[in-house]
Amino acid sequence: MISKYSHSSLNSFRNCPRQFKFQKIEKPDVPKRTTADAKLGDAVHRVLRFLYQRASDGKLMSFDKMLAAYDAEWEGPIRKAVVVANEYMTVDDYIKNGRKMLAEYYEKHQPFDQGRLLGAEMRLNFELPHTRFGFLAIVDRLWKRPDGTIEIWDYKTGRRLPLGSKDPSFRRQMGLYQIAIQTIYPEFERIELAQYWLRHDEVISCQLRTDEIEELLEELRTDVHAIINAERLNDFPTREGPLCSYCDYEHLCPAKRHRLMLDAESGNGGGGEKATAESGAELADRFIKANEEMNRWKQEREALRKEVIQAARELEVDTLCGSATSVRVKLKSEECLPTKSQSPDEYAELSHLAGKWGFENYFELSTSQFMKEAYRKGRLTPEQQEQIKAYVRIKDASRVSIVKRKNPENE
To answer: Mapping DSSP to helix (H, G, I), strand (E, B) and coil, where does residue 324 land?
Structure first.
């Protein structure tokens, strides 16, 4: 069970549930890479914290000392370990970009006394209101303006400028920070949220209404329940995307592992696992061929589907690579409630409970809708959840699909 959540951990689950499981649950011992983007962000954030902490004590850090402190962040063995994902960039390019951002910021905002500093890089531990879910929020700068408005600032060194304050990522992150501040400091009423995009010298700011905060609270609560359900069913599928190149777990990833197995077996003549990588590739090719001739080979296709699922379980992968394309296997168990045709008696009992608890609208649509909207999203009381558990069944909901690869020879 995850003991504490954060914006970054929820974002990790949204981006790739399997990576989340590696990071927060399994925690395998793998070499940690420091990417140039991450190092740039850390170095710039640390220097900005120095600037404001000294300014709040009446000491202005000089421009030259600021740049010297920034350069020191990149010195030593850390620099040699920095990984640059962009082939047209070097570590020196990243260092230069950071110096430019800090120089422009210093010129525009020194002597850094536009208000009263309440905290820099504040680590805030709190419980999400109306729940017992623990959260962590790290606020780059908490600031009180002369008019009494509390400003929550977050610094960004990335390239992608969000689509204004309505951007979902902005709302989730900054709204969570406001919830953290108001939970710990309920006397702070007038709050403004701001992200400073240093690369673009742009500030995106807004004030969230009470109803927007309530909506976000419900979204966060639902996100946490989604993770709890994933833990209960061990349902953490991979989700491939552009962030895969930054992942520390690529060699363990079920979406990548079969290709690595094939490469390894081509060099050593194969291994002795229950299902070898080569046999998995053969299964993928056979499944693809059967899929193309679906009308003729329905029975064989279903048999192959079961074999593919079994092979994926034994290899602990979710992608079987064929010679030209791949077969994607989503291993999944699903909670369900009995339907009227499956068990009329249990269905009648469930219908009675749903009506008694005020969830008849969901139940009248289907038992699966009641399961989705009431049970999985935690809208039932703990006692009601326990009553429903007596009727819950687990069924295999694994899915198999073909994934085309554009350049399989170059993978």
So the answer is: coil
Distance CA 256, CA 317 (A): 8
> Which token pair is 38?
């991450």
Which helix (DSSP H) or strand (DSSP E) does residue 195 occupy? strand 191-197
Domain layout of the chain by residue ranges:
5-226, 254-319, 338-391
379-409 in b/e burial notation, b at 16+ Cβ within 10 A? bbeeebeeebeebeeeeeebebeeeeeeeee
Q: Are 404 and 325 in contact (CB under 8 A)?
A: yes
Q: Cβ neighbours of residue 163 under 8 Å, at least 6 residues apart?
A: none
- d(CA 317, CA 313) in angstroms, rounded, equals 7
Q: Which two tokens stand for residue 354?
A: 């749903």
Which residue reads 């609208």 in tokens?
361
Residue 64 and residue 90: Cα distance in Å, rounded? 24
Q: What is the pTM of this model?
A: 0.77
CATH annotation of 5-226: 3.90.320
- pLDDT tens track for 268-323: 554 555 567 888 888 888 888 887 776 676 788 888 888 999 999 999 999 999 88
Distance of CA 141 to the CA centre of its chain: 24
Structure tokens of 284?
A: 């993928």
Cα–Cα distance, 101 to 247 (Å, whole number)? 27
